[in-house]
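Entry for the shared binder. Reason: the reviewer on the internal report wants the predicted structure included alongside the sequence.
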Amino acid sequence: MTRPFPSAVATVLLAAVFGLLPFASQAMAEPPPDALLVVLTNTGTICGSGLPRLTPHPAADRYLDVLARGFSGRLLRLYRHVQELRRRTEAAPIEPAYLLLSTTQGGFPRFGFCLDDEEKPSAGYVELHRGQRLSGAFGAMDQIFPHELLHVITRQLAGTPPDGGSNQVHAIGVRTDRYQAFNEGFAEHAQVMAVVDPDAAPDTAALAQDPEPRQRAWRNLDAYRRALVARWAPAPRHRIGFVLWFSATEQVLRYHAVEDNLFAREPDIPPSLLETSDPWIAYLLEHIMPGEPDAPLKPTPRLLSTEGVVAAAMTRWVTLPDAQQRLESEAFYDAFGTSAGEVTPLDNVYLKLFRVLADARPYELAGLARAYQERYPEEADALRRTMTGLGIDVDETVSEIWLASRRFTTGTTLFDQYRGLPRSHTFDLNAASAADLATVSGLTFAQARILRSGIPYASLDDVDEHRVVPPAILAELRLMQEAFASMAARSAEAEESLSLSAVFWPSIWRAVLWMLIAGLAGGTLYRMTRRAPRWRAALNGTGAGTCGLLCAWILEAPWWFAPAVPLVLLGAPAVLWQVWRRRWTDAAQVALAWLLAVLPVVVISQPLG
């Protein structure tokens, strides 16, 4: 990895101190006109058209060195071919790929900016956090950049995705709708390809064979499952501290669970969770936990609505030998500004996919597969076999029957573990899971099983004709359909527009509440064993509870570590003081008092039963 010259570092530091960074960066050499990637930084100003004014990044070389190789580099070359296709078909200007390094968490495809004073109202660019690791970790920049660049390409070729019925923010295992699932899954397969690319950065390529990230991810998932299904789990780490572990775990799942197609399998959900009046725990299990390799496959409509499944399908698709064959028509390649002899087998697949996206504009996996088979019939059988092997019947056309629950709310994103931003749950009846149907008022578990066995239905009238549910349940389904139709906005909120304080506040106040309870209980137990002033017992209990619970929620460690920390830091000095004074009875009492004071930490933080 090339480091910037010392003079450039000094320039940037001085500019940051005196607030002259935009001017300093403008003084840097402009990128060459044939550059495939231009790295940008924000000036903090807007141009006359209201677009953000961006300028070349002063330390672009360190990013270019990594992103110009591997799958990212391949996609940059393909992006230039896409721009040539758009120039010839839409008279769009040729643009390099742009990367904006900012302070915004996450990664986003953007459109429209000013490059210094030059307006580029339709140019696409990728925005990533400037502190994101470049390579060598799941979710590093060399995987997320091609992910977001595929979003830009898809939008340029196929247009804006249609509005689907889901109102949930997406995640790798969340069942949304077929449009959102395709939009995200098509981009997410780039993260798998980035790890397995022969020219990937060595530390990124090593991830595929490193067992430690996968083992840690599955430990987190197992602990989360225990926290959800336990009879007693008031404040376990994997609920209170969900934000601390899930993002990294999801990035691991985007590789390993996608490679194994585990999101096509039904997760194990205890029936008792589906028979409650509030199936929130079942919903969380269903949308976070991947299935086991030998678990039953989900039906095709649910598969098409799950981005992890779409990502798995696209990974298999682009590596099909049949799909990698060159076409005989030179006109096909000429439209992209290249020739058959200049592209690799893998490039062939993507050029074919991009041509189908541009011509047919499909925005769901089955539609893309059907359009692809029609355009390249010689590959149709191989593609159909691949999809069937994943459990997907791309020839099955199923109507969507969208319903909105009148009594069940989900959180806004999976990070909203305690529903600080509640929203009515929406789902497609033909893609419904057991957890979805558990939200239908009056529908029993047995009736739900019968209703699911009859999927797909053409409409609710079709449900009526099949007589699979009592009239009262059918009436409830019609009311849910009307509730969905009357919702003012059904599309999922953009991730960057969420109120993070509202999402995380329920976890924060629960943490504070349980620390107070642990302090009160610990202080009481301390004073029952060791006669001490109330203020001292309260202080010791508060110290034990706060220190122990923070360790339990923040650190990934064995269960005994959290209570051991306050014992070592707070209890041991008190015991040693009594030992030094040769007060052996007092030393024993103090030791026992501290052991009891940390007991609430274990009871509160560990799932039991």
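Summary line for the report: The CA atoms of residues 568 and 574 lie 10 Å apart.
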